[in-house]
# Entry
Amino acid sequence: MTRRQIREHIFLMLFRKEFYSTDELNEQMKIYLEEMEKVSIEENSYLEERFQGILSKLNEVDEILSEISSGWKLDRLGKVELTILRLGIYEMRFDDEIPVKVAINEAVELSKKFGGDDTPGFVNGVLAKIV
# Structure
């Protein structure tokens, strides 16, 4: 599985946060991982660890996002945009293995795939404020 594929799976799992409570979210993650085809035990473990790592930093990520998105409350953001920004900020601030420029680029690529026409520019602009 490529890093981009891993990132897409993390995005899809994290997106569910907007619809489920914490207890339900863990169950949803397990269901998601069980339904994936052709995933090794190592990849499955990595996805689960990464997802839990992001959840553990979500309050900090949301604080950063609130600071840089002046005038926008998090509940005003679209769920896709919010999830992409959360993942991008996590990678930029808490994942030393991913260069900042790569994290921004990958967030923009996710927004092209899952967001609307204006989402890539919005995501790029918000994440660029962190740099």
Summary: The mean pLDDT is 92. Residues 3-128 form a domain with the N-utilizing Substance Protein B Homolog; Chain A fold (CATH 1.10.940.10).
